[in-house]
């Protein structure tokens, strides 16, 4: 009987990251919303630019959920596979102290294993430890499982509107996480009342 593949969450670029991130997005979104060329080229350009900035910007990071089959099934062949991705972009919002979560996806065959929860936890640890005050992400209203994860991590819906996205109508949600502040903490030199 074959063992269960091991899945690890690994930070940083690895060969095939961009290709696999795009492949998973296309495999998921094309059948459901029929996004095609505009979607693929836009993601490829944006994600490539962000990944290129990793070396010069330590406040930008990517994570891959990497599946490694059990030793008895690999026969010495390199068979690791990226089954999830998440990107934290510190530049796209052009706001000091703000990050954007992008490229968050888990391979359809690997869903339900807690991979999304682990990817998001790694990203949130990075966001908090790097002193970001705010993190924003955009998703569609059809992503119930992801929205549940975001809300458990402290994100709240700040915008919910119908838009044309990559030539298709869609309800887009903007969710935002804000760093919790402690009672009596000062903001702009004025102590805030946390009861309001």
List strands and helices in order, with pairings.
Elements: E1 6-11, H1 17-33, H2 37-52, E2 61-68, H3 71-74, E3 81-89, E4 98-106, H4 115-129, E5 134-140, H5 144-152, E6 156-165, E7 168-178, E8 186-187, E9 190-191
Parallel strand pairs: 4-5
Antiparallel strand pairs: 1-2, 2-3, 3-4, 5-7, 6-7, 8-9
Helix pairs in contact: 1-2
GO molecular function, one term: N-acetyltransferase activity
Protein name: N-acetyltransferase domain-containing protein
Pfam family, one: Acetyltransf_1
Features:
single chain, 196 residues, alpha+beta, Aminopeptidase, two-stranded antiparallel ribbon, globular
Tell me what the structure shows.
By secondary structure, the chain is of the alpha+beta class. It has a single domain (6-191), classed as Aminopeptidase (3-Layer(aba) Sandwich). Helix content is 31%, strand content 33%. The chain contains 5 helices and 9 strands; from the N terminus they run βααβαββαβαββββ. The chain has helices at 17-33, 37-52, 71-74, 115-129, 144-152, and strands at 6-11, 61-68, 81-89, 98-106, 134-140, 156-165, 168-178, 186-187, 190-191. The protein has a 7-stranded mixed sheet, sandwiched between helices. A two-stranded antiparallel ribbon has the order 8-9. Helix 1 (17-33) packs antiparallel against helix 2 (37-52). The longest helix has 17 residues, at 17-33. The protein is globular. The protein starts with 5 loop residues before the first strand and ends in a 5-residue tail after the last strand. Residues 37-171 form the N-acetyltransferase domain. Keywords: Transferase.
